[in-house]
Specification:
mainly beta, Thrombin, subunit H, eight-stranded mixed beta sheet, 5 helices, about 45% strand
């Protein structure tokens, strides 16, 4: 849906109407077939001079040519002697009237769905649409659009077009935009591509005109004079939902929406201009040439870019094929879509309220974003919102007014800032928080530091059993983090107490008790869960451990035996195994601190030899011996034994 005009001529300055020559196919411009007695040209220097003379008339708003080489004039209502003279001599001149002069059209604002021109040579170019505002990997402004708009690298420059001209199908120059920083249509390197996610249709324009104001919004085209006046905000990037309606915005057919449930293909592949594009299809979504690269959205979520499709025609249901945006972005080397983030709010305390020093100040903002807390005095602090959008940071230790601003950040997207102020009041100094090691925890690595949080700027003192005394100062920002170095090897029952001192006060102590234990020994053979045939029970058990550690084995609850790990290995000779389940309990001990590992295996019962069948006996259809002869005697004898045993047991219990 990339539209290729014959020529793009600029004669006016930035932000005004322009002399045009922009509709039609990618062919060389043709001369205007003038009527007898006129020399009105539509190409070259004569055309330029003629257009400038016409545009001196206040009623004439634009001058250009159409696809058939006819001169086209757009004017407001009223009598124009210049137009009258021209039409009298040239009956093929096309006159279009508009209700009011063409306005600057928010010349500095760039929103999704706006049109732009791509120059591919000195005399040719094409028309496409902006998809979304975005960022380069370095955070500079960029526009996300279709890859085929770059013409396989032929694109030289891009220029925004006047929306009023786009609606009238006579595009006019509005402002320089930038150059393509990346483009892929089909497979890598402009190949046809395969049926995989490496085939896409996405391009990114590095915006060189820094006077432009890129917005994370998509225009609805309800206000052609200012596309940024009626928009849908983009708050997220995601995959298309087949149950929801889909909307698109582009320069040719403007803003259109399909009914819910019209997504007819998900994560599919379409041949767009002969090249494969991974994406999705939507029935009854109007789009045509020039809409390429336009935004495809669901609500405020960016989901795709217009790549191709089938415009409305008799007997054929129209559809749009869209590039999957999430997948396409992953091919660009780090370009991202700009999203609109709401300004963070303060929840506790309310602005102007009181908060005890060192306690939490809470608020809400966009979910899973970074919140920048910038106080009027002091260091900037960053907090993170959870999935519900809640965040918190600690009030400073300094008493009095604490003014600050909040701003949400996601990638390079930033929310507006919001300003607040709270009053920090004194409070009994509470015990600091110990974040590691946690109370009751066991670590298999040596503990090299005790960490926690306290009032920012407070002095933290650590004492404990088996732990050397140490001090630290909590960081003087909203985090209030402290760390005290230590070096604890294997041991159990380590106990640590921590207090904080601030402005002449000393807090109660916080404490934690923890263990440092060796890792469990690894039982290599027999493998846990192994099964062995009778007579093939394992005779040894072996594994790996820490050199010098004591390994203790208990086999099936029997007597414990010990050995020492050497060169990382240990082994024992196993006693007799039991038929059925067997257990192995192995402890690895260093300095009296042990860790248990356990394993098990099974041993099958001995097989009973089969008794050959007497050939003189009748065949009964079974290889089981009939109850008769010796077999019957054995079975009956066994039954009698079981019965006697049961009687004896019963007698003994009576």
């Amino acid at each position: 849906m990339h539209r290729s005009p014959r020529r793009f001529t600029r004669t006016l300055t930035f932000g005004t109407a322009a002399a045009l020559g922009l509709s039609g196919l990618l062919i060389a411009p043709t001369a205007f077939a003038a009527s007898a007695g006129t020399d009105a040209a539509v190409t070259g220097a004569d055309y330029q001079k003629h257009a400038e003379v016409l545009l001196e008339d206040d009623l004439i708003q634009a001058v250009g040519t159409d696809a058939d080489g006819n001169l086209v004039i757009i004017k407001t209502a009223g009598e124009s002697s210049a137009v009258d003279k021209l039409t009298a001599a040239n009956p093929d001149v096309v006159i279009e009237e508009i209700s009011k002069p063409i306005e600057p059209t928010a010349a500095n604002d760039v929103v999704g769905g706006a049109g732009y021109y791509v120059q591919t040579s000195a005399t040719t170019g094409g028309l496409c649409s902006v998809g979304f505002s975005g960022f380069t990997p370095a955070g500079d402004p960029a526009v996300i659009t279709a890859g085929h708009c770059a013409g396989d690298g032929a694109a030289a420059v891009t220029e925004l077009t006047v929306p009023a001209g786009d609606v009238a199908d006579v595009p006019a120059y509005l402002a320089d935009l930038g150059t393509f920083g990346f483009a892929q249509w089909g497979g890598v390197g402009g190949t046809v591509g395969g049926e995989d996610t490496n085939s896409t249709d996405i391009g990114v324009i590095d915006v060189t005109n820094r006077a432009l104001n890129l917005k994370p919004e998509v225009t609805t085209w309800a206000n052609v004079a200012d596309l940024s006046a009626t928009t849908v905000p983009i708050t997220a990037v995601g995959r298309v939902d087949p149950a929801l309606a889909v909307s698109k915005s582009g320069r040719t057919t403007q803003y259109t929406t399909s009914a819910a449930g019209n997504v007819f293909m998900l994560e599919g592949y379409a041949k767009v201009g002969g090249r494969n594009v991974f994406g999705f299809g939507v029935w009854d979504l109007e789009s045509t040439q020039g809409d390429s690269g336009g935004a495809v959205i669901q609500g405020s979520t960016a989901v795709g870019l217009v790549s191709g499709g089938l415009p409305a025609q008799a007997g054929q249901r129209q559809f749009v094929w869209a590039t999957d945006l999430v997948n396409g972005l992953s091919k660009t080397g780090g370009y991202t879509v700009e999203v609109q983030l709401g300004a963070p709010a303060l929840t506790s305390p309310a602005t102007g309220g009181n908060v005890e020093r060192g306690t939490a100040i809470t608020g809400t903002g966009p979910a899973s974003t970074t919140i920048i807390v910038d106080p009027a005095v002091g260091e900037t602090v960053e907090a993170t919102t959870d999935a519900a959008g809640v965040f918190s940071f600690l009030a400073p230790g300094t008493l009095g007014a604490y003014p600050f601003t909040l701003q949400a950040k996601s990638g390079y997207s930033l929310s507006p800032t919001s300003a607040f102020s709270v009053n920090v009041i004194p409070a009994p100094l509470r015990a600091p928080v110990i974040t590691a090691p946690l109370d009751g925890s066991s670590s298999t690595d040596g503990v090299t530091e005790i960490t926690g949080t306290a009032v920012p700027g407070a002095t933290v003192t650590l004492t404990g059993s088996g732990v050397r005394t140490g001090t630290a100062v909590a960081t003087a920002n909203g985090a209030g983090v402290w760390r005290v170095a230590t070096d604890l090897s294997y041991g159990v029952g380590y106990s640590v107490s921590v207090t904080q001192a601030f402005e002449g006060q000393t807090s109660p102590a916080a404490s934690t008790t923890f263990n440092v234990v060796p890792t469990a020994a690894v039982i290599g053979t027999p493998a846990d869960g192994a099964s062995f045939a009778n007579g093939e029970a394992p005779t040894t058990v072996s594994g790996t451990g820490i050199d010098g550690a004591t390994i203790t084995l208990i086999h099936n609850g029997g007597t414990a035996v010990t050995t020492t790990v050497a060169n990382g290995r240990w082994s024992f000779t196993l006693g007799a195994s039991a038929v059925g389940a067997n257990t192995l309990l192995v402890t690895q001990s260093i300095d009296g601190v042990a860790t248990l590992a356990q394993s098990g295996y099974t041993l099958a019962a001995a097989q009973v030899a089969a008794v050959p069948r007497d050939p003189s006996l009748a065949v009964t259809g079974s290889d089981i011996l009939p109850i008769g002869g010796l077999a019957a005697v054995l079975l009956l004898a066994g039954a009698a034994f079981l019965t006697v045993r049961k009687l004896r047991i019963g007698t003994a219990r009576s």
